[in-house]
Description:
Layout: E1 5-9, H1 14-30, E2 34-38, H2 41-48, H3 60-75, H4 89-99, H5 103-118, H6 127-135, H7 141-148, H8 151-166, E3 174-177, E4 180-183, H9 188-197
Parallel strand pairs: 1-2
Antiparallel strand pairs: 1-3, 3-4
Helix pairs in contact: 1-3, 1-5, 1-9, 4-5, 4-7, 4-8, 6-7
Amino acid sequence: MAEPILFYFDFLSPYGYLGSIEVERMxxxxxxxxxxxxxxxxxxxxxxxxxxxxxxTPLKKDYVAHDLERCARLMRIxxxxxxxxxxxxxxxxxxxxxxGQDAALAKRFGQAVYRTHWAEATDMSSPLAVAKVAAALGVxxxxxxxxxxxxxxxxxxxQAVEAAIAAGVFGVPSFVVGGEMFWxxxxxxxxxRWIETGGW
Length: 200
């Protein structure tokens, strides 16, 4: 069986949302699986690299707002951002907890969080919003709310972020195939070509 495509994500990123859909489309064409791996931009971008978030960067923020809608139209992906910036920690912890039990369920949850926030414009920052999305997938909301506040889940997510940083991941979406990393949803055609040709 071919090795999976590693997909590093943070629900905070609208480009991550676009990438989450495109990578699964590509993987289906190529007969590959996609393994979702969490990372926190608040750690990699703000703390490790010491950069400003895109919405706080003059000039670039206006371009990004335009580019996101343009990319979504090109990829034929619904895009409708909420007014408030997302605080992703509750959703990222929930994903981490679910992934420790059922990777397929965790992926469906991740896709639902992305869709609810970035296509349906429903803010997914609060634990209650996260629990509501999970409940629609058959997850006990009370158990999820307890889990995302627990020390083991927090530690597991911390370890995942540290592992991503050790692997050189600095932004999302990032994709890794055969040890080769590609950053950005716009690099997915390159990822596909790399898989088809074995690299260059």
